[in-house]
Amino acid sequence: MKKTPPITSNSMNENYFLKKKIQMAVLYAVLSGIAIYTLAPLWLLLVNSFKSQSEIISSPLGLPSEITFSYLSNAMKEINFFRALFITTAITSTSVLLIVIVSSMAAWIMVRNKSKASTIVFMCFVAAMLIPFQAVMYPLIQFFDDIRLKSATGLVLMYGGFGLSMSVFLYHGFVKSVPRGVEEAATIDGCNIFQMYIHVVMPLLKSITVTVIVLNSMWIWNDYLLPFLVIGNSPTKTLVLELYFARITAGQFGNPWQLIFPSVMVSIIPIIIVYLFLQKYIVKGISDGAIKS
Amino acid sequence: MNFYKKWFWPLVIPSLLLFTMVILYPFIMGVVNSFLAWRGTYYFDPDTGTRATSMFKSFVGFANYKEAFQDTRFISALVYTVKYTFIAVIFVNVAALALALMVTKITKSSGIYRTIFFLPNMLGGLALGFIWQFIFQIIFTDILFSPEALYLPFLRYMTQDSTKALFALAMLNTWQYAGYMMIIYVAGLNNISADYYEAASIDGASYWYSFRKITIPMLMPSFTIVFFMTLANSFKLLDQNVALTDGEFGTRLLAMQILRTVKDTAPPNYGKAQAQAVIFFILVAGITLTQVAITKRKEVEM
What we know:
A: mainly alpha, MetI-like fold, 13 helices, 0% strand, B: 302 residues
């Protein structure tokens, strides 16, 4: 907000601008301080990914004495980086795709066909947002084990179910603001429901779809508990699980920082890269999501 | 329109199917199992002392709940979670609001600051927990706050004491979530028309006065969302708890207590774990509903 300075004598005017300038300088200094504080842990992560255990302990803050990639490559082997990256990417993207398709279809038709049934179904989805994961996890795992889906496929279905409520809620709120005129025109032109959904409805829902993708990918990619319960210590571990088990197995005798730092480092590099490229959409997605709900 | 009506069920059923499989059925089974001597893979019959032939023979009434409330670990996890939530909600909200006020005030490079502050949210709680464990154990203890440097005993060995760990966990989560909540507050602040502030400044209102009389009331919808999210997140926190202290030194939060109950007991007492989970659900639902009701009432329509 720009405030117009009060119209007074010249010297007061100068005083006013000087005061504003100092205020701004202080503001920037404080913000920069906080930015350094925010980045400091990541700096630690970076420099200590190139050091031996003894060097990490003796000089944790400084640059490494020599640049060696042996710790990073060792960590990549330890956490089966490429395999885990592939599994995590596959699970996250199929889950998010499932969530987007199922929840957008349901929310759209629920808004367009107002009936008692549609209100009840919607209320169920909203109420389910209050159920914490812990309340359902044991029976869920047992049930999926019984139907032989305690696997990566089952994991995708579970994410589909857990991501559904919030996504239906977001789509539902958004579809309400989309006029149905275009859709009516499309039916007159002889569009069937699937053509309409793909060519008419989905393009109109693009911005909320970004929000749904961002919010769901963020938690699914980083989720620890569900893969831990479903996959556990089997070969098809996700990145987070690999990290967890590497820490557990190596950490029985103190903390093996020379393994933990580079492992954490390689496991977060993919996200950092995605963030740097897509941060505009991510931040917009989050803030749109907050306003809509 | 008839067209939509015809397609209602075909398009809703996939979501209902997923919902039933993943949430509704397990939730109902969860409540049922909390009244049974459930051992995970089988039901135990308390009368014969063997496997029950049917689910109903394994009914134990409120015994699992009674056992849960008599378990000191459960009670201490409950108290610890309430304490933690209280501290974390204050920390995160104050930090997020302060950041939002600052980044909306500056004219240049506000985007860079937002990008940096939001960055920690992209990373998983487990990975961040490991890095912060190092910070608390090595950087804080041996370097920054050691007797040779800025000696602050409270900030040393923070992961090895139940009270200190509470603050360590709150610091970690403030560092991680403040940027997220800041984005929501920024969206709220941008919705407030500059006219209000102009009118107030013409009337000679000070910054604090217009902050109290304009910003706070107009920001109520954002408070509702941020409080809801921070309350729920803190109450359900798990990953950071696992990574930072793994529940040692009496630092177990409820989510971890439910997860570890089946490891604490032999044979694994899933019935008791499930009773704790139902109590957990009632608490989470109760707290968040109350909070939304209270803040909604304070929201002003302008």
